[in-house]
Amino acid sequence: MDKVVVTVEQFVEWFPEFADNTNNSAMLARAQCYVTTDNYGYLCGDCRILAIYLMTAHLLTLQDMIANGDTSGGMETSASIDKVSVTLTPPPSTNAFDYWLGLTKYGTELLALLQSKISTPILVGGSFVRVLT
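Below the sequence we write its predicted C-alpha cells.
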C-alpha cells in the first residue's frame, strides 16, 4: 500500500509556531497512531499529510496546556475575582473524540478536515450512516 511521507522538518515548515519545540519528533510519531500514513480513501496525499500534522500540533498544544496547568477543557464563559469563580462551557460535540479535538484550534481544524472528507451518507439498516474512509 502507498504511504505518505511526513517529516519533522516539513511539519515545522507548515507549522512554524512549533519550531522551538523539542518534542516534535515524539509527537509526530504519536500522531501516526491516530492518523495512519497509509494513503487511501478520500483523505489522501497532502490532505492526509495535513491531517497528521494537525494531529501533531493538537497533541503538542495539549501537552503545553497540561504543562501550564490548564486542564479546564472548556471555553470560559464567566469569571469572578472575589471568592474566585470561573464558569466553563465545554465545546459542543457529539462524542468524546469530537470533544477532545475541540480542545485546541488544531484539533478543531482537523475535525473539519475529517468531516469534509466523509463520503455521502448511505442507507444501512433503515437509517442514514456516514462512512469515513
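Residues 8-129 form one domain.
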